[in-house]
Amino acid sequence: MPKKQKLQGRKVQKPNKLAAKVSAGPTTTAHAARSPLGKPISHYKAECNLKSFRKEAKRVGFDAQAYLENGYCILRPLWRDKEVQLALAAAQRVRSGSRSSDNQGEFVFLRGSSTPDKLLLFSLLNRYLPFLHQLLEGIVLPGSNNSPYGHHNQVQVAVKRPGFEGYTDLARMSSSRVGHIDQSSAKQTPPGKPTSNYSVLFGVVLSGETKTRSDAGNLYLAPGSYQKLAKAFQAFQGKVPWHPNITEHYLGEEDPKMEAVRASPGEAILMHHQTVHGVGPNHSNTVQSFVERISLFIGDYSESLSLVCPANHPSLQRTVSMCTFESLPVDVLMD
Questions:
Q1: Mean of the per-residue pLDDT values of the chain
Q2: What's the pTM?
Q3: Which class is 23-326 in CATH?
Q4: N or C: lower Cβ tally within 10 Å for the chain?
């Protein structure tokens, strides 16, 4: 690799010299909360209880009411600006050298001989891990096993350059009919295969102007759409068929409106997997970069989940910061 590369007129930083390996041994809450970039945590152990959940929710700025009502929320940045820049540079190098055929090379897989850049991107999850562990009562972590295509061993590195056209033009991005809910690529063709189910989608914004404008390659989503789909899915006895035009197929003329997510570099986005979403055009002069965990799932696909809280939680009521909410009595049908 040349010592200096240029990408969109900017110099790409040299790789961060970190050991190319995943952290070994169980990690404590204190260690995870202040862990450095570079090595993704693969083993984490902590007791799940309401007190710890409340503490971690406050630490990351989790807005429980927003998540319950809208199906997403913004989490405060836990990485310093310098660390975000290191992650951005790593994302640029990974994308420029990607040979993946999935979605123009956006998908990055964790392998036994992964490069320091790839490991650094996976480690963006580390400081949010104690919160996610409490929220979901445990998640399968990157590097916890050797499954090269397991959802926990992949991230999506989305880079939307100036001129990116988005799913449609800006005026029509408000229609949820241009959005989707995620489905495993192997189960997208033909439409009608059982819907895949994940617990949440989690991503970190690395660059762009999406905080101040809605046409900078923003993530768009339809607030509350996950609840409307859940209600429609209840009509099925068994597995729910997936369709690319999910709202048109299941909600008809209801068509919940999508809106642009406003988030700054360093902030994280937590989204219910069943929230309809898409990506708008980038009319700005800056590159919008976003690293997304494809899925953070509990156990395997045979396990049952409720819409908001794990079904096996001892209480379906939780208190987060000063906000109390109850999980909805609707089960998401599992694949």
A1: 76
A2: 0.79
A3: mainly beta
A4: N
